[in-house]
Write a structure and sequence with these properties.
Radius of gyration: 23 Å
Strand content: 25-35%
Distance between the termini: 31 Å
Strand order of the largest sheet: 1-4-5-7-8-9
Structural class: alpha+beta
Largest sheet: 6 strands, antiparallel
Order of helices and strands: HEEEEEEHEEEEEEEEHHHHHHHH
Number of helices: 10
Helix content: 25-40%
């Protein structure tokens, strides 16, 4: 009996250790919209080509160059952001003729597995458009990993995938007529993308706190001068000052700066203080979840990321982390 109990405890400890080893928040790269794109190309009247894009999207990439098979991505596009450089056509694409954006506002992709190929990666995952989810597979060139001039880590994935729009219920019945063997608009759509995931490191992040006249800058300056209690005191005085509009960003930025400096206990105090003031802000739970993940407290991390995603369904960073932890 004692031997069985000891084996069970050993197995539990080993499982916890392996889970902790398999997920590392340092390998998480939120996708930076301003340096990424998602566009599509279709054939019109059998010969002409035209392109459109989606301007609003968000996601997160998990990538470790030492273990590329652990690569994972969670990604979502807002259909309302479709842009083909023609207002009438964009309204038609959002309508029931095509995407029915009012009922199905998002296109979602979540990878299920990644394996190495000769020159890159083969990604398998679930693509959801309207009511249809299909398992797809496509090959990507090897991702590019760089450190930019600000000292931030970047990972860049580029690629394309061709799908049949009708398989996802994107019918465009008014454009399906065939004349002399030519259809008005092709069923095949080629999606091209370049996704840049970025980790803002300590040196660059400090620029966001440089201005002591801003609430985050003032609180961080108080911390540098007098420590954690001084920072909290400064925050309280700013809250009482009606000339400032306070939100969760103030303490969140200070907490992140401390975490980037390796001061995890102090960062936790800041984040928990922020949570007490903004209990319905999904980003606050996300920040605490990341902190707990960095500390190896994965059950707490999971609980906070779940709460964050419940409050903010667009938080694909939380969705990706939960996929890793689950």
């Amino acid at each position: 009996m004692k031997r069985t109990t000891c084996l069970f405890i050993l197995f539990a400890l080993l499982s916890t250790y392996l889970i902790g080893q398999s997920f590392n928040a340092e390998h998480l790269y939120p996708i930076e919209n301003s340096h990424s794109f998602v566009q599509f190309e279709v054939t019109y009247m059998g010969y002409a080509k035209f392109k459109g894009n989606f301007s609003d999207f968000y996601g997160s990439i998990y990538y470790n160059p030492a273990a590329p098979e652990r690569t994972s991505v969670t990604f979502q596009v807002d259909v309302e952001s479709i842009d083909t450089n023609n207002d009438w056509r964009d309204r038609d694409l959002k309508s029931g003729n095509w995407f029915l954006a009012e009922r199905f506002p998002h296109i979602h992709f979540s990878s299920t597995s990644v394996r190495s190929s000769g020159e890159g990666l083969i990604v398998t995952g679930d693509l959801s458009i309207k009511e249809t989810t299909k398992r797809i597979e496509f090959e990507l060139p090897a991702p590019v990993s760089v450190v930019d001039m600000r000292g931030d880590n970047q990972i860049i994935f580029t690629g394309e995938y061709t799908l049949n729009r009708k398989e996802y219920g994107v019918m465009g019945k008014n454009w399906s007529q065939v004349k002399e063997g030519i259809v008005a608009l092709s069923d095949e759509v080629t999606i091209e993308f370049s996704l840049l995931g970025k980790q803002i490191n300590e040196g660059n992040f400090s620029n966001f706190l440089r201005n002591p006249k801003s609430p985050p800058g003032a609180v961080y300056a108080a911390y540098k001068e007098g420590g954690l209690n001084a920072a909290i005191g400064k925050y309280e005085s700013l809250k009482a000052d009606t000339s400032f509009t306070m939100n969760s960003r103030t303490l969140n930025m200070v907490g992140y700066m401390l975490a980037k400096q390796g001061k995890l206990a102090e960062a936790q105090t800041i984040f928990e203080r922020n949570l007490s003031d903004f209990p319905e802000d999904g980003n606050v739970y996300d920040s605490l979840g990341e902190l707990y993940a960095r500390k190896g407290e994965l059950e707490k991390a999971t609980a906070h990321y779940r709460k964050s995603l419940a409050l903010d369904p667009k938080n694909m960073n939380a969705a990706e982390v939960l996929k890793q932890l689950d």
